[in-house]
Structures are given as C-alpha cells and as structure tokens.
Design goal:
Number of domains: 1
CATH architecture: 3-Layer(aba) Sandwich
Helix content: 40-55%
Structural class: alpha/beta
Largest sheet: 3 strands, antiparallel
Strand content: 5-15%
Shape: globular
Strand order of the largest sheet: 3-4-5
CATH topology: Rossmann fold
Number of strands: 8
C-alpha cells in the first residue's frame, strides 16, 4: 500500500502533515516533492480518500446503516465503528486458529455498532491514521469479518488488497514461490482454493456478500480470493488509483433484495 502514483492536481488530505512526516522519516528526512499541480499519491491514500468519500455518501443516503473498519497486515486490527477507546488487535498464533478468531469475533458481536451518521467522524479519523507495513493476513481478516457481518443478513464485506495473502490462515505464499517444488506449489494452491471456497459457502449461507477490490499492477492470485465474490453476489474489481472512489461507491449502492434464494 506504500507504492505511489503521480496524479494531476493537488490533494489536501486530513492528517496529511502527519503522513508526510512519516514518509520523510523513511527517506532520511526528505519530504515528498509536489510540483506543477501534480501529487504522488500512495495506494493507501487512495483507499483512505475512497473510504472517506463513501462514508460521506452513506451518511447522506443511508444514515442508519452501520459501518465498521478492519485492517490486516502481520496482524488484524478491528476498529469497529470507530468509537471504541482502543482497537482489538489479533496477532501471532491466533491468526492460524479459526477457533481463536471466531472466539474473538463472538466477543465483539456483543458490542452493537452505531449508525454511520453517528460514527462517521470517528471512522474517518481511524482511516486516516492507518499506516502501511507488514504481511497480508487476508484469510484471518475474512474469517473474523464474516463472523461479525453474519449477524445481520444482507451485510457486505469489501476487501481491498494490493498484496498476496501470506499470513495466517489461507496463506497463498507457497502457491507462488518459484523456489519450491511444483508439487508443493500445486498442493498449496489447492489448499488455498479449499479454504476460500469454504468461506464462500459460509458467507452465502449467512446472506453476506463479499466484494474484492485490488489495484492494477499487483499480484494477489485473484482467481483464488475472487471466488468469494463470485459465489456471494459480490464484485471483483481491478482498479486504477484514480477511480477507486467510484468503485467503492458502486459496490455500496447495490441494494440487497433477498438472501438465501
């Protein structure tokens, strides 16, 4: 999520000074250059702007809907509706245990999410505080999110990733490792397909739609994780950084007419 794209125009993001200071530290104190009405925008910043814009739209069009944020790298962090004092962080061996992930999710289900009209400001603050880094614990994040979302039929999970799932359950790292034997790669690919097929079936049974958004030019074995969208009535979308906001909007605007039919 740290890769950048040069785009036309200037962007004044919330918390931009804090983000620039973080970036400067990573490059020996040198701030990113902005010139001639052009700006380098990172993938994470693109996601932040898209989420922010769509939270605004939800507040206007569907203020009673609920929204929650969950991030994943070498650990998964659940911010809920943004109003909690401290996020829930799950790391280590728990990322390899479906039992542990479901147990943590069950505890969180007791905390009722508030309508987005009440939580938008806090959610936006949490989103703009996010930083890049670590692996991609996509599988554990979906297991956790699905157990939260399944308490309300018709819920939607939107996964945004620019990397290969390589941490915890559902890791596909071996499936693309050219240094290992082909038989090992094929077995890892088969196990990955089985894992995400299982999540797909569970989401379909619970009436939850899963959509996957990934960024052009990244490798994430989309045919494997994309089956979750294909099997639950969601979307699989490969986006340019500049149209990410609209892609988010199109997913959220789709109305659920019925489930389990």
């Amino acid at each position: 999520m740290s890769s950048t794209t040069l785009v036309q125009g200037t962007f004044n993001l919330p918390h931009i000074l804090k983000q620039q200071e973080r970036a400067a530290e990573a490059f020996g104190g040198a701030h990113m250059i902005r010139q001639h009405n052009q700006t380098y925008v990172s993938r994470l910043q693109g996601v932040q702007m898209a989420v922010d814009a769509n939270l605004d739209k939800l507040v206007k069009d569907a203020p009673t809907r609920r929204a929650a944020v969950l991030t994943f790298n070498h650990e998964i962090t659940y911010y809920g509706d943004g109003t909690r004092d401290e996020p829930l962080v799950i790391r280590g061996d728990k990322l390899n245990s479906e039992t542990d992930l479901l147990h943590e999710a069950e505890k969180e289900v007791k905390n009722e999410l508030k309508p987005v009209a009440q939580t938008k400001t806090k959610l936006t603050e949490r989103v703009y505080d996010l930083e890049e880094g670590g692996q991609t614990a996509l599988g554990p994040a979906v297991v956790f999110a699905l157990n939260i979302a399944s308490k309300r039929q018709g819920s939607k999970i939107v996964i945004c990733t620019d990397g290969l799932a390589n941490g915890g359950l559902g890791s596909l790292e071996l499936a693309q490792d050219t240094k290992v034997d082909e038989a090992v790669r094929n077995r890892a690919l088969e196990e990955g397909n089985q894992f995400y097929a299982g999540l797909t079936e569970r989401a379909r049974d619970k009436g939850v739609g899963i959509s996957v958004i990934t960024i052009k030019g990244t490798a994430c074995l989309l045919p494997v994780i994309g089956q979750m969208a294909d099997g639950t009535g969601g979307n699989v979308t490969i986006v340019d950084l500049l149209n990410m906001r609209d892609e988010f909007a199109s997913i959220l605007e789709q109305k659920i007419i019925a489930t389990n039919v």
